[in-house]
Specification:
It comes from Rhodamnia argentea. Introduction of a cis double bond between carbons of the acyl chain. Homodimer. It is found in: Plastid, Chloroplast. Its EC number is 1.14.19.-. Helix 11 runs parallel beside helix 14. The protein is mainly alpha-helical and 399 residues long. It contains 14 helices and 2 strands. It has a two-stranded antiparallel sheet. It starts with 11 loop residues before the first helix and ends with a strand. A hairpin with a 5-residue loop joins strand 1 and strand 2. The radius of gyration is 21 Å and the shape is globular. Bound molecules: fe (ii) ion (2 copies). One fe (ii) ion binds next to helix 9 and helix 10.
């Protein structure tokens, strides 16, 4: 695991839970192209008075750029008509889309204050650990500028002008616009419920957008769309689980909110997995190699550089709570991988090159290996520490 290479950023919780980047470092060889850059932030003091105007990202890998051979850009150009017919259909017209206001008290209505009071009463029944997970999910959604930037790093599919009319660019802008409602809705719910420290949360969002993300997709749309396929499914699972738990806590409105967001993620997953399915059809060797490459590097979660100005291991701590509550776990990571292997019929690929066959074997045998390692890690796991979360006014939670 990448983080383990630097003692400054290893938290005790990391040994217990590692869903974001399961401990599969021993499973495959890390490409020699990649090694860790030094960690730029190593203490955990409040940095409010720091002389540095911006916090650097906590850790980034050596940045590999433009790893797709230039001639393959033609593949994406030749897919324009296909993408228009097959991908844009997964966007919903704005007039048919839900908006955050559909789920929230209407500030223009006479009943607003009463509706807010009711919302706050219902939210009182929900435990702190649930809120920490919901906040982490919301912060992840709120870093949307980073994800649109990431999509626009991808060679052959980026939005070259900001209003480009290629189907890829139309998709990316409309996808962003759909996603934008997720953070909006969760943010407004959390604001109204009165259970969380909004200022700390807002700082976390500002830090995170400033830090960006390091998905190691190398401007390479093969890697990029494999990454987004994985991520959309991960968010589908995670929002689905926060919906289920909200229902268990009797907050049906919040369950509906999280469930509605989850169904958007599912639709996005369908689109991204379809792109990769098509790439498998056109270029099976290149696509299976990209899949193996992405999985060797491990899928880092989009908010892995999260920081609130206090907790240097905030992402690991949030992840530990998400794992304990079953919102997103190491098992989910292996399940998603297994799902994608099946979705893209990777086992059934024939006629591959030697390198392709090696990549095929790697990804097809990876899910059970991840599960075995995770079970072993769970068996060794000691009781987690109890730590404060600034998002809930420094109340402490067990990891
Ligand atoms: Fe989302
Ligand atoms: Fe999404």
């Amino acid at each position: 695991m990448a983080l383990k290479l630097n003692p400054h950023v290893v938290s005790p919780s990391r040994k217990l839970t590692s869903f974001a980047m399961p401990p599969v470092a021993n499973v495959g060889l890390r490409s020699p192209r990649f090694f860790m850059a030094s960690t730029l932030r190593s203490d955990s003091r409040e940095v409010g008075n720091s002389k540095k105007p911006f916090m650097p990202p906590r850790e980034v890998h050596v940045q590999v750029t433009h790893s797709m051979p230039p001639q393959k850009i033609e593949i994406f150009k030749s897919m324009d008509n296909w993408a228009e017919k097959n991908i844009l259909v997964h966007l919903k017209p704005v007039e048919k889309c839900w908006q955050a206001q559909d789920f929230l008290p209407d500030p223009a209505s006479d009943g607003f204050e009463e509706q807010v009071r009711e919302l706050r009463e219902r939210a009182k029944e929900i435990p702190d650990d649930y809120f920490v997970v919901l906040v982490g999910d919301m912060v992840t959604e709120e870093a949307l500028p980073t994800y649109q930037t990431m999509l626009n790093t991808l060679d052959g599919v980026r939005d070259e002008t900001g209003a480009s009319l290629t189907p890829w660019a139309i998709w990316t802008r409309a996808w962003t616009a759909e996603e934008n409602r997720h953070g909006d809705l969760l943010n407004k719910y959390l604001y109204l419920c009165g259970r969380v420290d909004m200022r700390q949360i807002e700082k976390t969002i500002q830090y995170l957008i400033g830090s960006g993300m390091d998905p190691r997709t190398e401007n390479n749309p093969y890697l990029g769309f494999i990454y987004t396929s994985f991520q959309e499914r991960a968010t589908f699972i995670s929002h689905g689980n926060t919906a289920r738990l909200a229902k268990e806590h009797g907050e049906m409105k919040l369950a509906q909110i999280c469930g509605t967001i989850a169904s958007d993620e599912k639709r996005h997953e369908t689109a991204y997995t379809k792109i990769v399915e098509k790439l498998f059809e056109i270029d099976p060797n290149g696509t299976v190699s990209a899949f193996a490459d992405m999985m060797r590097k491990k899928i880092s979660m989009p908010a892995h550089l999260m920081f609130d100005g206090r907790d240097d291991n905030l992402f690991e701590h949030f992840s530990a709570v998400a794992q304990r509550l079953g919102v997103y776990t190491a098992k989910d990571y292996a399940d998603i991988l297994e799902f994608l292997v099946g979705r893209w019929k990777v086992e059934e690929l024939t006629g591959l090159s030697a390198e392709g066959r090696k990549a095929q074997d790697y990804v097809c045998t990876l899910p059970p290996r991840i599960r075995r390692l995770e079970e072993r890690a769970q068996g060794r796991a000691k009781e987690g520490p109890t730590i404060p979360f600034s998002w809930i006014f420094d109340r402490k939670l067990k990891l």
